[in-house]
Amino acid sequence: MAESRIRAAVVGTGAIVSGGHLSALAAHAAEVELVAAVDIDPGRLAAFHELARAADGVGDPTGYTDLATMLDSERPDLVLIGTPPSLHREQALAALRAGAWVWCEKPLCLSLAEFDEIAAAEREGGPYAAVVAQHRYGSGTVHARALLDSGELGEPRVAHCQTTWYRDTAYYAVPWRGRWATEGGGPTMGHGIHQTDLLLHLLGDWTEIRAMAARLVHDVESEDVSTALVRFVNGAVATVVNSVLSPDEVSRIRIDCAEATVELTHLYGHRNDDWVYTARPGLDDDARVTRWRTPAADEPSSHAAQLAGVLAAIRAGTRPPGSGADARRTLEFNAALYKAAFTGRPVHAGEITEGDPYYSAMHGNHPDWAPKEEQ
């Protein structure tokens, strides 16, 4: 691609786009220009237009209420999708088929079958579809990943992944929330997916999951809490907890290695100060511990940090971060968690393939969990 600014469009102009996506575009205004915005609500579209014009250097996007019309008229290089989850598959496919790269809010789609359909629409050298996974980005994560990969912290042994948040009844009054067909699942898919993705990013491939899920408080189709025990290829074992029932809200990743424990505690985003390194008892190497605790940079996790990699990939014609097999692994993890929870037996990586009910839907058409009209 020539060195002119990359032409971007947003689909959906709600809070996540007018916040995270717009600020990311502003951070990279020298490289990317927002040329269009799509929303079925003209009022919301007009409000977003004013925000975009006020954001220094972002652009003066033309508004559309129809995605197909926008794609045909504008031919953008990149489409940022921030609509409800049930729309992601159709919108990502439309953008890819129009020749646009895709950067989509989580989850990219609602099943492994949908993911594979999207992947089939990609072309070598682009366009590709990537999912927003901003917790992977920022200097704290980069530093921790490097230390783990190098063996500096020793062999990973025990891990804990926690997304314990609180959502009230009013939250689920939004029609698409809490329903399999529109959200794809409960906190496992809609909330904890960020921390789960980060855990996999840090520890690598998993091999086996045992799980439980429950609907304890909310009158929804999907779960409002899930827990899992996970074994990784490297031998580490982990616990995963996803909840929307927890008054004391926290997001946490903890990995106990042979030489040290690394722990991240935050809520919706992190920076260096949120990462804590604790040396094992008896380790007397101040220089080494100081190295663990002093990343080379101090950049918070953010949409802007990930967008930098997406834009670089577009320029180079290479697969962007948060796409392909790497993104599929997180979705497969969630499908396996649901299958393990609903069937009461362990599930292994690679087990859920075409023909398995959990390949096509996270509820697996289980009689206790699937909507009655789908059984």
TrEMBL record:
Residues covered by the Gfo/Idh/MocA-like oxidoreductase N-terminal domain: 6-126
Entries under SUPFAM superfamilies matching the protein: Glyceraldehyde-3-phosphate dehydrogenase-like, C-terminal domain, NAD(P)-binding Rossmann-fold domains
Top-level taxon of origin: Bacteria
Domain GFO/IDH/MocA-like oxidoreductase: 143-262
Protein name in the entry: Gfo/Idh/MocA family oxidoreductase
Organism this protein belongs to: Streptomyces litchfieldiae
